[in-house]
Amino acid sequence: MIELQDVAVGYGGSELLAEMTLKLVPGSFHFLTGPSGAGKTTFLKLCYAELLPSSGFMGLYGQDARTMGRDDIARMRQRIGVVHQDCQFLDHLSVAENVALPLTVSGRPIDGMELAELLAWVGLKAQMNALPPQLSGGERQRAALARAIITSPEVILADEPTGNLDWEMSLRLLSLLMELNKLGKTVLIATHDLNLIRQAKAQVSARVLRIANRRLQLAGADL
C-alpha cells in the first residue's frame, strides 16, 4: 500500500527527515509520535504524495511516487483519507456539503442516504444542515473524519486529530478510528498524546513509531 525505503526529504537544502523505512500493510494500525517540530506532519505528507522524497524509494500502491503524473496522484489520493490538523471547511456550505466535497470535486455521484448514514455514524446527523462556524471543536473533527472517509479509502491518515479536544471527545474520535481499523482500514495517527496511545493499545494491536533525530524509530514498551 504505502512503502518507504531509505527515504529522505528536506526543505531549502536542509534535510528534515532521513533514512525513513516503513511499510503500511492492509489492516494495520500505527501511531506516529515525537516532539513538536520533529517532522510528523512532513512524514504524513510523504504518505499521500503532498511531498516527494529527495532520495530513496516511495511506493504508493506499487508505483514509485516520483514517477507518478498528476492524474495518477489524484486517483491514488482517493484511496487515502486524510484528517488534517486544522480541518478547514468552506463556511458557506453546510456540514453535509462539506463532507461530500471530495465526491463533488472528483465528479462522483452523491448517495444522499449513504451520506446521512455516515453523518449519523460520526454523531452529526442533527448538524448536517448546520454551517461549519456553528460546530464545536469535537464536531469539526468528526466532520473532518467523515469527509476523509467519504470516498471509502483503504488508508486513513490523521494528523493530531485530538490535539484541541478534551479527553472525552478524544476517546470518542479514537473509537471511530479503531472501528474503521476493525473494518479492515489501515490507520496511521500522528499524536503527541501518550495517554491516547496507551488507551488504544489496550484495545487494538497498534504499532508505535517515533520520529527522533530526523529518523523513524520503533517506540519501546514504555508507552
Automatic annotation (TrEMBL):
Name of the featured protein: Cell division ATP-binding protein FtsE
Domain ABC transporter intervals: 2-223
Classification via Gene3D superfamilies: P-loop containing nucleotide triphosphate hydrolases
GO molecular function: ATP binding; ATP hydrolysis activity; transmembrane transporter activity
GO cellular component terms, A-Z: plasma membrane
UniProt entry keywords in alphabetical sequence: ATP-binding, Cell cycle, Cell division, Hydrolase, Nucleotide-binding
EC id: 3.6.3.-
Example GO biological process: cell division
Gene giving rise to this polypeptide: ftsE
Upper classification of the organism: Bacteria, Pseudomonadati, Pseudomonadota, Alphaproteobacteria, Rhodobacterales
Pfam families in the record: ABC_tran
